[in-house]
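Friendly challenge for the regulars: who can give me the structure tokens for this chain first? No prize, just bragging rights.
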Amino acid sequence: MRKFHISSDEEIRNGETTDIYFVRTEEILHRHGLDKRRAIAEFTVGTLPKEWKWGVFCGLEEVLTLFEGDRIDLYAMPEGTVFPARDIAGVRVPVMVIDGCYGDYCIYETPALGLICQASGIASTASRIRKAAGDKLLVSFGIRRMHPSLSPMIDRASYIGGCNDVSSLSGARMIDRKPLGTMPHSLIIVFESQIDAWKAFDETISEDVPRIALIDTYSDEKTESLMAVETLGKSLNGVRLDTPDSRRGNFADIVREVRWELNLRGYEDVRIIVSGGINEMSIPDLIESGVDGFGVGTSISSASTIDFAMDIVELDGKPCAKRGKFGGRKEVWRCERCSSMLVLPYARDGGSCPVCGGKIRRLLKQYIKNGRIIEDPQSPDEIREYVLRQLEHLDL
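First reply, four minutes later:
Bragging rights claimed.
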């Protein structure tokens, strides 16, 4: 009897997290000798959440693990690719393609979609928040809002999307970084004194951990910020405001007060970090008020999933498609100059960009050949840098 309500690696890999109708489909096709028909399937999305102009493709590494050893070929955009739902002509953009006997992969449609839908939604939201936050510190705080088994995926996708660091132990291990975080309100409450808690932290925790004092437990944020600098002096690296909605009023004005009082006393280098209910809409005003960094939780970890669908577009070499989809295998091209995407029938030369005349290049790469991984995924650091380069040329 399992103790936690999660699927094991083996259950996912064996197709036990699929929908029952795919199991029945596999049985029917096998009985009627149709399970070996070669089918090419594409993963696309019709629209992105909340009228986003772009999303970030994430989750490929787990997809490769899912399909490794199966007799299929798999092609995909590199993980971290920023993509629109549709190309410049309104054609859905395939982010991933499977080529093989349909009976060999039909039961994996459900887990494959799950691996990219949620991770891509989290990475996309993190990227949007990164875009809004500019070069400010951005830390993923969201794992407490989701099932703990998902913490590595959530923090990996958050980091890939643009967060500087993550708070969870398992998530930090996944991206080979140290977890970032200092103190909760409970530490101060147990000590029954902000000053005693700050002192205990400073005396106990290694010096390589920044001294960032939480300053909104009992008193006014301005008052507690001054208590913090008087207590820790020059060893204080920053203060964090996690002020609840019921006490906020104008949060940006609270930050301005704290910044003013710190500067007035010569503590211009003490950073102001804010957390609690932060999203891409609230960030610009907070930056203007003097915030140096953000701990972002729920808005990243509970990000809208990207509703990818998997559809067969070619059967035994002949184009086919359900209503509303475009038949035939396709190739995705991206302009090196303006980043426009163009979807064309497979093996057709892309030519030049119809928008700016720039050079275009194929975007889908083969990662699996007959069940063998032939292109290793990049590291989280490499993927993150790839995302950040693309974000430089994008608007929200």
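The first helix runs from residue 9 to 13. The radius of gyration is 24 Å. Your move, everyone else.
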